[in-house]
Design brief:
This protein is elongated. It is 57% helix and 17% strand. By secondary structure, it is of the alpha+beta class. It has a 6-stranded mixed β-barrel. It is built from 17 helices and 10 strands. The chain has 2 domains: 2-64 and 269-419, no CATH class; 72-264, no CATH class. It starts with 8 loop residues before the first helix and ends with a helix. Strand 2 and strand 3 (116-125) form a beta hairpin.
């Protein structure tokens, strides 16, 4: 480490104090406390990075599952779209961000099979057009979306909904709807027999247990509508959906109501972000505890090096120089812990699936039961902004933890310290 000799003397002494216990074997307890503070900082930083990566992974996984069913942007204006949805779709596609558009109708009803009754949202679609704006057609596990023909009264059910109704492909369910024009003489619901031609599994409980698809023409017949109620749009970058929706609102000819996918699930995303922030604060306390270890280590070092401090003061070292020496020692310990923690956290976050799989195989149990959580592996997505944020917070805590012990070192009385040496 010849480069150390070119540093200011405060840095040279601070580095020497950090390594002294290992070289000479003296002051082993101080050296042990230094190791504890480094280890605690590393564990805190690594835990924070891993937990944030897992939460990012869950968010990405759930978002992907939701967007296999949801559109990036939905456009509503029943009169304009019903009259000529193709023209409205062409108008929307003038925005380069819009890749595809598909018409839809959506309504609520009650599905019955035997003595089992389940509420459901039924969405009328054109299968060929729907495949361009969502991936729900790829989530089919039995049957086919292509069997949804106009006038066929066919339906595709979510997997949990089909299981609750005890029905499979080839079976039938009854759809009960409120009367379109209720009156005292006509309070009976409309009932229509539907043929189950497919079952999909998006991996999201809300959709798998409460969503069904039918042909758009059949949906319009049930609703006594002349055309679709809205359009579903797919854009190039789903994260730009709010911005693209605002652009479309200004550029499209007509007064349309536009809703992007983040608005439809605003409560869920807000709750997830709140949980992520709370988890960051809670786990930061681990780093804070490690920072207190740095304080304890520096206090003991100052106590042990009182004679050295006294000699430096008598040789003309300023109080600021004494303070820098112990700040360097504390920061080096903190930075070593942060570096080790970042390396460990990144490696674990990148290999989380393999690590969890190995633990499950070793101990013979599953962290996530698929029938409960709809996923069988722990997702992880490393976000470098999170890594930098964690490192910055840990670095700030390390710096703050050096201030009091370093200031205390400047209060050492040289004459009193040397008298008892």
């Amino acid at each position: 480490m010849s480069f150390v000799h070119h540093l200011p003397f405060e840095w040279q002494i601070g580095v020497r104090y950090t390594r002294a216990g290992r070289r000479s074997g003296r002051n082993s307890f101080v050296s042990f406390m230094s190791l504890v503070s480094i280890t605690g900082m590393a564990l805190g930083v690594a835990a924070l990075i891993v937990v944030l990566s897992i939460m990012n992974g869950f968010q990405q996984d759930v978002t992907g599952r939701m967007l296999s069913v949801l559109a990036h942007i939905e456009v509503y204006d029943e009169s304009a779209i019903s009259n000529n949805w193709q023209a409205v779709a062409q108008d929307a596609r003038r925005n380069r961000a819009v890749l595809a558009a598909a018409p839809f109708d959506e309504f609520s009803g009650m599905l019955l099979q035997g003595d089992v009754m389940r509420p459901a949202v039924l969405r009328g679609i054109l299968p060929a057009e729907e495949s361009q704006v969502s991936e729900v057609i790829q989530t089919i596990i039995s049957g086919s979306f292509e069997a949804l023909h106009a006038g066929s009264n066919n339906v595709v059910l979510g997997s949990e909904l089909a299981s609750a109704l005890h029905v499979k492909v080839g079976g039938q369910v009854a759809l009960a709807l409120a009367p379109s024009q209720p009156s005292l003489r006509n309070m009976a619901p409309q009932v229509r027999k539907l043929n189950v031609v497919g079952i999909f599994e998006a991996g999201h409980f809300e959709f798998d247990s409460g969503l069904a698809f039918m042909h758009l023409v059949d949906a319009q017949e049930l609703l006594h509508a002349s055309g679709p109620a809205g359009l579903r749009l797919r854009i190039a970058d789903l994260h730009q959906a709010p911005q693209v929706a605002m652009q479309l609102k200004r550029s499209m000819n007509g007064e349309f109501l536009l809703r992007d996918w983040t608005q439809r699930n605003a409560n869920w995303f807000a709750a997830l972000q709140s949980q992520k922030h709370m988890m960051f604060i809670i786990l930061t306390l681990i780093v804070a505890v490690a920072a207190f270890n740095v304080v304890a280590m520096l206090v003991m070092t100052v106590t042990d090096k009182r004679a050295d401090v006294a000699i430096l003061r008598t040789l003309g070292a300023a109080p600021g120089s004494i303070m820098k020496i112990f700040m360097v020692q504390g920061l080096l310990a903190g930075l070593c812990g942060i570096g080790a923690g970042v390396a460990a956290g990144v490696l674990v976050a990148w290999n989380m699936s393999a690590i969890v799989a190995a633990i499950e195989q070793l101990f013979g149990f599953h962290f996530l039961a698929k029938n409960i959580y709809f996923i069988s592996s722990v997702p992880s997505r490393l976000d470098w902004d999170d890594v930098l944020g964690v490192a910055a917070v840990a670095g700030a805590l390390s710096f703050l933890s050096t201030l009091y012990p370093s200031w205390w070192a400047t209060r050492v009385n040289p004459a009193h310290a040397l008298r008892y040496e």
